[in-house]
Amino acid sequence: MRFRIKTSSSSHTLNDIPETLSFREFLLLIEKETGIPSATITIKAGYPPKIISVPQNSVPLSQIETLSNGDTLIVSSPVQLSTSETPNSIKKQSNNGYDYKPQSKINTLNNNNDHSSISEPDNEKHYVKCRDGYMIKRDIPDDNSCLFRAVSYLVHGTQENFYGLRTVISDSITNSNKLNSTSYSEAILGRPVPQYCNWIMQPNSWGGAIELQILADWFSIEIVTVDIKTGTHYVFGLAENKYTTRIYLLYSGIHYDAIVFNPSLSVNAYSNDTLMFPASDSHALDCAIQLSKLVRSKSGFTDTTSFKLLCLDCNTTLVGEKNATIHASKTGHTNFTESK
């Protein structure tokens, strides 16, 4: 197969690409040509150009209906490399012992004002000492899109792309169903596939384990959630140890926040946030768990079996996540908020 690759600043030609090449391998090949990190690449094809999405990055190119031999592919990334950077500088060794602090993310954080919705570190709550710096909880807005915002920040260095991640979920489930995969069947989703895809696109719909697994495969990373109440961690994308990079989320029972490493506690030091970590780094995991325990000591978790939710669609008060789920399935209501 042959493709022409166009970015905002360059053009490339890829020749003799095997049809059996997986989409993940294809992204890595594009990364090698363009210098754009594969985990942040968006590909558009056709006219008008539409984003190419696949249920799993392991799908071979021959099975992607929206991709054809000879296509011109528009490749972009929310994270843009500066002219002084090279592909090798994307993953640079830092003196704090962590390898995964993409320079492109640092530039993104310097060049936008997306910090207005991220909390400043609080010396009483938000960090623990870790190596030569601190593991810090970056608070994410409580707007029913916290999972998507947190992942967007940790992968792209900005929350601006969070709604696009809902599209990734919907498209991935739809495409998986078209391939007769049982990964996201009605039995697993708890509702018919079209209904679930419409539901997850609503801004008031919460993401959970299904969304985390899809996003892990989409970005070819491990997503680790640390439960504040129990200190237990869950790894999405762990199968066969296929991903070498991971991000960390802090989970309160109803809300996700981002976990980052930073050598400084200065409120002006977001540009030095380490957003990704080697999956093999057990010390980073230990620090994330220590952070969860600290937050727990400040009552930073919600007991989902006894907390109260108010359905804003009908003003019904519900006790516990189970009752809220039942109510949503019966009524189709999805607009909930925690009730004190």
UniProtKB/TrEMBL annotation:
<keyword id="KW-0378">Hydrolase</keyword>
<keyword id="KW-0833">Ubl conjugation pathway</keyword>
<feature type="domain" description="OTU">
    <location>
        <begin position="135"/>
        <end position="262"/>
    </location>
</feature>
<dbReference type="Pfam" id="PF02338">
    <property type="entry name" value="OTU"/>
</dbReference>
<dbReference type="GO" id="GO:0005829">
    <property type="term" value="C:cytosol"/>
</dbReference>
<feature type="region of interest" description="Disordered">
    <location>
        <begin position="83"/>
        <end position="123"/>
    </location>
</feature>
<keyword id="KW-0963">Cytoplasm</keyword>
<dbReference type="GO" id="GO:0008270">
    <property type="term" value="F:zinc ion binding"/>
</dbReference>
<keyword id="KW-0645">Protease</keyword>
<dbReference type="InterPro" id="IPR057766">
    <property type="entry name" value="Znf-C2H2_OTU1-like_C"/>
</dbReference>
<keyword id="KW-0788">Thiol protease</keyword>
<dbReference type="Pfam" id="PF24560">
    <property type="entry name" value="zf-C2H2_OTU1_C"/>
</dbReference>
<dbReference type="GO" id="GO:0036503">
    <property type="term" value="P:ERAD pathway"/>
</dbReference>
<dbReference type="InterPro" id="IPR003323">
    <property type="entry name" value="OTU_dom"/>
</dbReference>
<dbReference type="GO" id="GO:0030968">
    <property type="term" value="P:endoplasmic reticulum unfolded protein response"/>
</dbReference>
<keyword id="KW-0479">Metal-binding</keyword>
<feature type="compositionally biased region" description="Polar residues">
    <location>
        <begin position="104"/>
        <end position="120"/>
    </location>
</feature>
<comment type="function">
    <text>Hydrolase that can remove conjugated ubiquitin from proteins and may therefore play an important regulatory role at the level of protein turnover by preventing degradation.</text>
</comment>
<protein>
    <recommendedName>
        <fullName>Ubiquitin thioesterase OTU</fullName>
        <ecNumber>3.4.19.12</ecNumber>
    </recommendedName>
</protein>
<dbReference type="InterPro" id="IPR048857">
    <property type="entry name" value="OTU1_Ubl"/>
</dbReference>
<dbReference type="GO" id="GO:0005634">
    <property type="term" value="C:nucleus"/>
</dbReference>
<keyword id="KW-0863">Zinc-finger</keyword>
<feature type="compositionally biased region" description="Polar residues">
    <location>
        <begin position="83"/>
        <end position="97"/>
    </location>
</feature>
<dbReference type="Pfam" id="PF21403">
    <property type="entry name" value="OTU1_UBXL"/>
</dbReference>
<dbReference type="GO" id="GO:0016579">
    <property type="term" value="P:protein deubiquitination"/>
</dbReference>
<dbReference type="GO" id="GO:0004843">
    <property type="term" value="F:cysteine-type deubiquitinase activity"/>
</dbReference>
<dbReference type="InterPro" id="IPR038765">
    <property type="entry name" value="Papain-like_cys_pep_sf"/>
</dbReference>
<keyword id="KW-0862">Zinc</keyword>
